[in-house]
Amino acid sequence: MSNITRNQRRNPFTLGEIAQSVGDYFIRIKRYDEAKEEYKEAIMAYNLVLQSSSHFAFAQKHKRIIQKILDELSIKNVYVFPPPALVNDLSQWLQNNFTKAIEMNWQTLEEIFGTKQLAFRTAASKAQSIKRAKHITFNVEQTIVLAVELTPLENQEISILIHVSVIEPQTELPENLTLILLSETGESLTEIQASSHNNYFKQPLKAKSGEQFSVKLVLEECSFMEKFII
Length: 230
Known about the structure:
Layout: H1 12-28, H2 32-46, H3 56-76, E1 88-89, H4 90-94, H5 99-103, H6 109-113, H7 118-122, E2 130-139, E3 142-152, E4 158-165, E5 178-183, E6 188-193, E7 200-207, E8 212-219, E9 222-229
Parallel strand pairs: 1-9
Antiparallel strand pairs: 2-3, 3-4, 4-7, 5-6, 5-8, 8-9
Helix pairs in contact: 1-2, 2-3
């Protein structure tokens, strides 16, 4: 189990997201009993989100999603995730509109890392940069953080920094973790792999309004992809 009491420095919403991510992982590998336990743990965490919190509505929404999965598991003892169809609209981020981003599990760096924001925090960045991050769970022992930093440029381009890092208690990224940057048509633009003893790596790019790209993370037989539009 994730054990939501083992790290009280994280807020309940973040703890719920972590437990939910681990539950999702167990669903993918068809370990349904363990998935149920993680989902129950996630609900416990979401129940602790205060009504005055900006995350309250999203915690309630996540609880409904989890409960629907639990109900189906109780009847069929099987569940298949529907294919993802959402695209991250970065133009909304640039307008400081994060409603959809929160629904898609993006959080501030403070919510993800607490006071320790690792290399992402110490990297030189302009005051107007916008940063959001989310947990990516490959297996019960391996959760990483995918972060995106946006900085508007003078020529109407957007500077984008894709950042992948560990989260405590892990200290190193898995050596075979690969990030693939894809064009709108699915063409591979660049590919980088974590080096030995690295706790983060990053990939910069530039884009203009209307352009699309995807970030694919691959670890052994597992892969995750996030689609973006400016």
